[in-house]
Amino acid sequence: MSKLKFDVNIIYSGIFTKWNEQSDSLPRLTKATVHVPAEVDIEFGFIAQIKKAKNQKLRYCIYHPDIPDNDGEIRPPFDGELYVESNDWKFYIGDTIWAPVQNKTGKWRMTLELKGKVIAEKTFKVHLPDELPHSDTNLLKHENEKIASFWKKRGL
To answer: Which of 83, 96, 106, 113 has the least CB density, counted as fewest CB within 10 Å?
Structure first.
């Protein structure tokens, strides 16, 4: 008999409300983006929906830029394992920025693995607020213009 393969989708990614580890509820998405301002206590990450994987061991990992600890040593990635709780389960992986913010800038890669295979990943770019690239609104407008131009060339 064949085994069902699990199904994974990132349903939300970006900036979220503060996450409470003690609560069963997940944080709420406040802004869909991969560009995160380096501000103290800003919460960012993604929510993945995992189906057909109950009781499978899930490994999560956050690879942050070279952030030094109090002794000046580079912090290792933050990782851990847990078991998928149900056959239709939502999991939040994320982090926050803490002081000093200057050494938190760079790429933060977040991954989820099942059976040794990366099943979901997202990379966030943390910038000092005055270094943020074009606003997401301008990026979206530019993408929409490119899509409209694509279809216009085809007479649709």
So the answer is: 83
Say which DSSP state 71 is in: T
Q: How many CA atoms lie within 13 A of 152 on its CB side?
A: 6
What's the CA dihedral at 57, 25, 96, 82 to 10 degrees? -10
Nearest alpha-carbon partner for 45 in 119, 137, 116, 120: 120
Beta bridge partners of 45: 14, 94
The DSSP element (H or E) to which 136 belongs, if any, is helix 136-153
Give the pLDDT confidence of 38-95 residue by residue, as tens digits: 999 999 999 999 999 999 999 999 999 999 988 999 999 999 999 999 999 999 999 9
DSSP reduced 3-state for 150? helix
Can you read off the two tokens belonging to residue 72? 């000046």
Distance CA 75, CA 68 (A): 6
